[in-house]
Amino acid sequence: SKTLRLILGDQLNIQHSWFEKTNPDMTYVMMEIKQETGYVRHHIQKVVGFFLAMRNFANSLQNQGHQVAYLNLDHPDNTQSLTGNLSFLIEKENFNRFEYLLPDEYRLDRQLADFCKSLSIPSRHFDSEHFLTSREFLTEFFKGKKTFLMETFYREMRKKYDVLMDGKEPLTGKWNYDQDNRNKFRDPLLLIAPKVFPKNASEIVGVIHTMEVETIGSIDEKNFEWPVTREESLQVLDYFCEKLLDSFGEYQDSIYTGDAFLFHSRLSFSLNTKMLSPLEVVEKVEQYWFANQDRINIAQVEGFIRQIIGWREYMRGVYWAKMPEYATLNFFGHERKLPEFYWTGKTKMNCMRHSIGQSLEKSYAHHIQRLMVTGNFALLAGIDPDEVDRWYLGIYIDAIEWVEITNTRGMSQFADGGIVGTKPYVSSANYIDKMSDYCKGCHYDKNLKTGENACPFNSLYWHFYNRNEDKLAKNPRIGMAYKTWEKMKDKSKILEQAEKYLENLDRL
Ligand code: FAD
Ligand code: SF4
């Protein structure tokens, strides 16, 4: 029967079994819609990246002989809503079946399920054939347990997929090399340029502006650099193995103002759009290491693989275990508005100015910038997690709710009260100075807690612990902090300093 099959913008998996054979009765529909450009204000590079990748994917399908209906953002028939366009097409072309791939986002999952209920023709959904686990796997795996320990989940994944394993034991005798991976980057001679694919994106940028899509951040529209095809994504993966993997773990937590990417892979966009599969990434890295063990040590490789089969897969499991409630959690009851400088980068705090400025410029920041600079500040300053989520969901090219919200509301803001993390990730200037070159160029003094130029992170850190004592003091991983606080002499002065900063966040 004449079937309409929907492919969403983050379902660009050319290896899906749907595409094994061509069939004249099947039409694949893809659409650029304001519903998706408008649920949050996205970075311009994110919108461009998605549209370019979608268009390339539609071309690949057509080249393989599949029939594709592609609705450009400015197509006259575009209703700008997912279900509006589907209804229109089904009626116009007399489709008598509708099929879709399970979305990764709760919002779209509901929308499509409701839509199918309203249809008078039969419908069916399929797995996206991307993840290593089903939506329900994590819930079942931790059944009866109070907490979802990532490390336990990760080891299970290593065994299940036989990655870096020797039978039931880890190949090198150890599961985790985190301890080896905490170096600060210092030597600019070691820097390696990222693999980029400069292309002209002016046409799409023009359409985005004409259609009045509101975006954030900037773009060099003649030189758009992100990978937007499977072939380019595979090249980024090869480049990572050959040039970056040998230092990945070592400098994973390091921040350096001279380079946004350091030894990070820049694969999140390719993975989250499904141009690459997590298993192929991990297998490629594992095999590359096997062949190059003389040059690359296990700590680098294990550190990378844990991010993909551990954290990434785990976050997806938490998302499906806890949505929709997860999006409402606010453990600390934080209510402050996000300071204006998150949208402009205009602040005297060097770490924030740089991390935000870079995010606005590149639609990218690596994990520690997200967690220990911008996220850390938002948590210390008591920003409403809804506001924090909205920022992270918009600004990064890899931001899709299932992985954004679990990282932001969970890992970074501890708004879930400890589902994802065992304690809040907060720090004073001390940690930022240890891992970056930010503090030496800063208006504020990293060593001061009080006084005119005292680093805001220092007093806000103690203010955070002090105001949340009833919620945190019992946590065995935090006890030490309260003991230190207890002994500190100038408590009231520190709190006063923090209050002053909190009243004037926009002036920092
Ligand atoms: P690399 O450092 O090279 O890591 C390799 C891959 O591992 C990444 O591509 C990613 O797929 C995976 N990975 C690494 N860390 C995580 C993690 N914590 N959770 C899930 N996968 C991970 N990642 C997103 O993909 N989308 C987001 O919207 C997102 N929002 C975040 C928000 C906050 C507050 C924080 C602290 C982290 C967030 N992350 C998010 C996780 C991580 O920061 C990015 O995946 C990473 O920076 C992407 O850059 P990369 O590809 O160079 O990563
Ligand atoms: Fe950031 Fe404080 Fe260091 Fe300045 S001194 S860069 S505000 S941590």
Compose a concise summary of this entry.
The chain is an alpha/beta fold.
Give your account of this protein's structure.
This protein folds into three domains: 3-126, Rossmann fold (3-Layer(aba) Sandwich), CATH 3.40.50; 138-321, Serine Threonine Protein Phosphatase 5, Tetratricopeptide repeat (Alpha Horseshoe); 341-507, DNA Cyclobutane Dipyrimidine Photolyase, subunit A, domain 3. The protein has helices at residues 34-38, 44-63, 82-93, 106-118, 137-141, 150-160, 202-210, 230-248, 268-272, 278-291, 298-322, 341-344, 350-362, 367-380, 385-395, 401-412, 429-435, 456-467, 469-472, 479-487, 491-503, and strands at residues 3-6, 26-31, 42-43, 67-71, 97-101, 123-126, 165-166, 169-170, 215-216. The protein contains 21 helices and nine strands. The model has no long low-confidence stretch (mean pLDDT 96). 47% of the residues lie in helices and 6% in strands. The longest helix is centred in the middle third of the chain and has 25 residues, at 298-322. Flavin-adenine dinucleotide binds next to helix 9, helix 11, helix 14 and helix 16.
Core attributes:
single chain; 508 residues; Rossmann fold; Serine Threonine Protein Phosphatase 5, Tetratricopeptide repeat; 5-stranded parallel sheet; two-stranded parallel ribbon; 21 helices; 9 strands; binds flavin-adenine dinucleotide; binds iron/sulfur cluster; UV-DNA_repair_photolyase
